[in-house]
Amino acid sequence: MKEIASFEFDTEVLSGGKVVVDFYSTECPPCEAVAPKFEGLSRLYGNDIKFVKIFRQQNKPLAESLGVRSSPTLLFFDNGVQSPVSLSGGIKRSDIIHQLDRMLSSDRVLEIKKEIKPTVSEFDVIILGAGPGGLTAGLYLCQSKVNTVMIDIALPGGQVSTTHEVSNYPGFIDPQPGYMLSHNMSEQTKLCGTVYKMAVDVTQIDLEKKQVVVDEFETITAKKIIIATGTSPNLMGIPGEKEMKGKGISYCATCDAKYYGDKEVVVIGGGNSAVEEADFISRFASKITMVHQFDALTANKQAQDKLFANPKITVLFSHEPRSFVRQGDKIITKVEDLKTQTVSELISDGVFVFIGMKPNIELFRDKLELDKWGYIKTNEDMHTSLPGIYAVGDVISKKYRQITTAVADGTIAAIAIAKEMS
């Protein structure tokens, strides 16, 4: 694997045969999550495909000329011809493999796959998810000498790591950068002795057998499992969103706001996340138009006061987006006035979407008792409806979802498990 700059692009990429390029940024959790996958696959495919990294922030003109609008973005080249398929955002290892396999003959792919050897690992407890709830559970369990492994498809920290500022976590007088707060939590748990398996693809979860398969070749077993998989951003499901996701439409201000210096941006939403992230984006963008479906914001009063005092931000109340259309370097957001049913257009350089979250339970949705919103039901010890299966954090059914409540959930589950296993 090799890191290059713009002046080397023609030689190393366009004249380099089969090449995959990773455009990455700093302070970008998805970039950090994809890095070990990229490096690991370079060892498997490196004899056939060249793996190249380019620091996006120092090579902006090149990135923009190639249509790179989000970090990370993977581009694929074959003898100087760029593939129409690119990968961006929260990139799965399996998606990268799929694109790499398409660049090679089927016989060569089979040869490479033969080099992957299945393995089995045994632990006392598996923690699925490394947000505040999972990290806290891991800390308490390792301090109780319980052999624990933490598994996450991204890096430790969960949503906290993509939050630009946390002002209400106890023990800190000044607001803390989200990535630093999550980093400190992670380092504390890691140094205690919890085993980390980060930035992996979770390909199978069997709650009854208490088995988890990661990256298609490693089976991890345990006596108990803690589900701490958190939530993911809701999508609007309107025309153009899927096509422009990661290509002008973003769900992470920390990752992408820095690329909209002196540009105009649309923010969808009106809750705490939308309001706080709009304020952060205003550090870079020259103008922000918020689109909110109600006639008043739903964020807390302090956040609203700060937003309304920001001259860069205006709010379009009682409106909903109906579609996104690319027009050159601009995005046309068509919005409907919910009171008059008239449709108008907003022209911007990018769109950020913050319209709530959904629980990450796709791989075991039918195995557990859920509430009417799809969140996992637990008792006072964080035990679910299945024996030996616990759940903590934002993924469970509860009234408030905060960093502090996730930490409390993790504490309770870990203590309950440690006592039961002692």
Short description:
With 422 residues, this protein is an alpha/beta fold. The chain is built from 12 helices and 25 strands. The protein has 3 domains: 2-113, Glutaredoxin, CATH 3.40.30; 119-232 and 358-421, FAD/NAD(P)-binding domain (3-Layer(bba) Sandwich); 241-355, FAD/NAD(P)-binding domain (3-Layer(bba) Sandwich), CATH 3.50.50.60.
Explain what the structure shows.
With 422 residues, the protein is α/β, with parallel strands linked by helices. The chain folds into 3 domains: 2-113, Glutaredoxin (3-Layer(aba) Sandwich), CATH 3.40.30; 119-232 and 358-421, FAD/NAD(P)-binding domain, CATH 3.50.50.60; 241-355, FAD/NAD(P)-binding domain. Helix content is 28%, strand content 26%. The protein has 12 helices and 25 strands. The strands form 6 sheets. Strands 1, 2, 3, 4, 5 and 6 form a 6-stranded mixed sheet that branches. β20 and β21 (330-337) form a beta hairpin. α2 crosses α4 (93-102), α6 (132-143) runs parallel beside α12 (403-421) and α10 (272-281) packs parallel to α11. The chain is globular, with a radius of gyration of 22 Å. The N and C termini lie far apart (46 Å). The model has no long low-confidence stretch (mean pLDDT 93).
